[in-house]
Amino acid sequence: MILRCSDGLSSKEVAAELGCHEHTVGKWRRRFLKDRLDGLLDEARPGRPRSIEDDQVAAVIERTLRDSPRDATHWSLRSMAKEAGLSHTTVRRIWTAFGLQPHRQERFKLSSDPLFVEKVRDIVGLYLSPPNRALVLSVDEKSQIQALDRSQPVLPMMPGVPERQTHDYIRHGTTSLFAALDVASGFVIGKCYKRHRAKEFLSFLKEIDTRVSSDLDIHIIMDNYATHKTKEVKAWLARRPRYRVHFTPTSASWINQVERWFAELTRKQLQRGVHASVKTLEADILTFIKHHNENPKPFKWTKSADEILASVKRFCHRVDQTLCGEL
Fold first, then answer.
1. Could you tell me the CA-to-CA distances from 98 to 57, 89, 212, 248 in Å, in that order?
2. Which of 34, 147, 200, 263 could form a disulfide with 281 if both were Cys (CB 3.0 to 4.6 A apart)?
3. Cα angle 99, 104, 110; round to 5
4. What tens digit of pLDDT does each residue of 119-134 get?
5. Domain annotation for the chain: domains and CATH numbers
6. What is the pTM of this model?
């Protein structure tokens, strides 16, 4: 403000240029004219003086990051307050100011696949630029889905009262769902089996083969599960040249889009479902697939391979450069 005023501009012109009120410009001009540079220093503000020294704040941060209490795996507000001799509200303000949340924990696993980069580029390339006259299917199985029945009837939701279930349950068996997601349209081919061996997987591939037009090539994205790589499966695929298999990197199921659809199935159907038999469980799963396919919507993949690899590399550097080597 002072420098622009020294160029001969009026307070109104300076205020318009800097986006403030002209009275603000006038105030600082008067203070500069009266006390020169000293007039530009901020004056002491009213209020209670600080009761917490910088050393105390540093000690709380250091103890939070480096130590743990003797009787717990992480600090709570009150345990840290007792240890530091401060109030728990003070500890909360310090933790909030520095973004510390000892009560939270996140999990991660980095892929050790030596072909991680190549596989990511291959699969993301299929998502962002699918080949012509071809179908890209994301395939996997959701195994050991339990048919759970509650030990007592479910109490329905009422005004002011949520739906209530007993905490204990009765197991009535399991089923395994094999699913193939068309990444372009969101359409799902699904079938339930009692087990999830290579025999069942081969049967599901035959199911796909009968439901996909014979004039289309089929690109299958799947993980490295042992049942996907048996001699029988390899021989069946080798006899059908229109099939192209793309394996995801090990420990990188997040790149397989059908996993996202499995999450929808779990959230909308399985998590709160009550099933008195495997038969009713399978019927509900197939009904869910039928309703989904009446108005399928594809998942939108937004990250390029370069963006994914750059993100993984940044994470590796934050955690420990020795975990991943050169990407």
1. 10, 14, 55, 38
2. 147
3. 100
4. 999 999 999 988 888 8
5. 2-40 (no CATH), 54-97 (1.10.10), 116-317 (3.30.420.10)
6. 0.73
